[in-house]
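Quick sanity check, Transposase:
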Amino acid sequence: CFSKRVSRVKLHEIILNLPPCEVVMEACSSSHYWGRACLNSGHQVNLIPAQHVTPFVRGNKNDKNDCLAIYEAS
């Protein structure tokens, strides 16, 4: 999880510089684009449908809680 905003260009640079790893994302309109970007960089990608993530969200919906819920759902 990131604790600050990251631009699309910066995120792409981060993805390219990461050693091969598993990337888990909640499925959304742009997740397929980022999933392909991760696959092309040698990462394993797992997209989780939103309805499978929602039961794991605790407290108010925000980026940190969403990140933790995606981690737990994976």
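Posting the structure with no commentary besides this: The chain has one domain: 20-73.
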